[in-house]
């Protein structure tokens, strides 16, 4: 009966005072395990609502995506659009939409509306839900306690950047999908045929943003590197520096279209100049704290390595890949652009892996002092992720939303969807 009442008030708040739903859905996630994922959907729906009122500044990634969407409105079907893109028109504005058909389809779906904040809205919902459904699923399956759910959920939400999600869109969406696929890949028991079938799901994040290819390759290398050895660590640490030299060289030598595409992306991402203009101090702090968080997780993982490498340990694949993703990311630290981008998957994966491990410290470690030190390490990881999350999200796009702060908290859902901003290319 209580769950029905809570669900009723959540829907009521969602319709007439959406931000009140954050309270009821938050309580629902914690106290109603059965419907926790439904309450989570309400939660991410509400935090995504403000972006419905968004109009991008000229030059923002979203302005180029919105421009491309307006061009896509000229096509009668998605098939016609893709044929046109493959017929030598892959670049529309700044981006190559031929290589990201899933994201292109989302844009095409809303192209006739000319209210393209709907694209950012949908991407925001999917991104935050994919990131957070992992820890809520852990809680539903009774693998973690309420307090770890709360801290971990807050840390994962804040690990993502709201403005970057709603403007750049593709990368955050791709990384959130990658993390969710990895989680369920680690959770679901599969035979050889099942594993091959599940591999298809890794195409989804790849077809949203091809930069996820590095992490997909590490995932498929897992059978060969599932035991942590010094040479596998060294291989992952040096992987990107070697690729940064090798891919452009091979692209110029062979002239292959795919290699040329990755070579151009690597060269663009290796340039720190344009990226540094955005918010230098914020990026710098996030990178330094990210490095500290990575080293804390590496210490935690290596301390418990023998226990984690037990073949029967649940989510072993996820925690080992978190370790390797962290090592790989350290190898990109010289390229601030790429390193900062990698943190979009490394941060939430470290939070989730830490949450899994913190529940097992008592059974893994007999020495009380060691046990307390590991709890302290986990606490530091949580604290640093929450701290930098608040700091990193200070660039909330309030100046590009046609609602005031009071409007954001008091408008009902019908008003949010009424008279949505219509796109036009403002070059001022």
From TrEMBL:
The keyword DNA damage does not apply. The chain crosses the membrane at residues 6-31, 38-55, 114-132, 144-162, 196-222, 228-254, 275-302, 314-335, 342-361, 373-392. Keywords: Membrane, Transmembrane, Transmembrane helix. This is Polymerase. It comes from Haemophilus haemolyticus.
């Amino acid at each position: 009966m209580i769950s029905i009442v809570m669900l009723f008030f959540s829907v009521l708040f969602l319709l007439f005072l959406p931000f009140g739903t954050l309270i009821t859905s938050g309580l629902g996630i914690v106290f109603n395990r059965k419907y926790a994922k439904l309450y989570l959907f309400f939660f991410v729906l509400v935090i995504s609502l403000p972006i419905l009122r968004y109009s991008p500044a000229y030059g923002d990634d979203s302005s180029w995506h919105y421009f491309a969407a307006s061009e896509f409105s000229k096509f009668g079907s998605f098939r016609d659009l893709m044929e046109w893109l493959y017929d030598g028109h892959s670049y529309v504005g700044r981006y190559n939409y031929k290589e990201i058909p899933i994201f292109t389809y989302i844009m095409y779906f809303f192209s006739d509306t000319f209210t393209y904040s709907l694209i950012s809205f949908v991407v925001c919902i999917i991104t935050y839900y994919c990131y957070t459904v992992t820890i809520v699923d852990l809680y539903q399956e009774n693998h973690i306690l309420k307090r770890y759910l709360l801290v971990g959920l807050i840390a994962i939400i804040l690990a993502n950047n709201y403005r970057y999600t709603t403007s750049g869109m593709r990368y955050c969406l791709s990384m959130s999908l990658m993390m969710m696929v990895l989680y369920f890949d680690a959770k679901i028991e599969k035979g050889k045929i099942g594993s091959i079938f599940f591999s298809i799901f890794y195409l989804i994040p790849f077809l949203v943003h091809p930069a996820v290819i590095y992490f997909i390759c590490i995932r498929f290398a897992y059978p060969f590197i599932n035991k942590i050895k010094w040479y596998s660590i060294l291989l992952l640490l040096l992987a990107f520096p070697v690729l940064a030299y090798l891919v452009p060289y091979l692209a110029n030598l062979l002239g292959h279209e795919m290699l040329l595409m990755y070579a151009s992306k690597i060269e663009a991402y290796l340039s720190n100049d344009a990226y540094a203009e955005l918010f230098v101090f914020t990026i710098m702090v996030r990178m330094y704290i990210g490095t500290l968080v990575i080293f804390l997780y590496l210490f935690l993982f290596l301390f418990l390595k023998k226990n984690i490498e037990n073949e029967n340990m649940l989510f072993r694949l996820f925690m080992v890949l978190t370790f390797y993703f962290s090592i790989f990311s350290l190898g990109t630290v010289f390229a601030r652009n790429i390193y900062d981008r990698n943190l979009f998957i490394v941060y939430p994966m470290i939070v989730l892996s830490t949450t899994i491990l913190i529940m097992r410290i008592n059974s893994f470690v007999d020495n009380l002092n060691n046990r307390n030190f590991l709890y302290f390490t986990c606490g530091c990881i949580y604290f640093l992720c929450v701290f930098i999350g608040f700091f990193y999200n200070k660039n909330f796009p309030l100046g590009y939303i046609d609602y005031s702060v009071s409007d954001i908290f008091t408008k009902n859902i019908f008003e949010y969807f009424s008279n949505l901003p219509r796109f036009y290319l403002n070059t001022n």
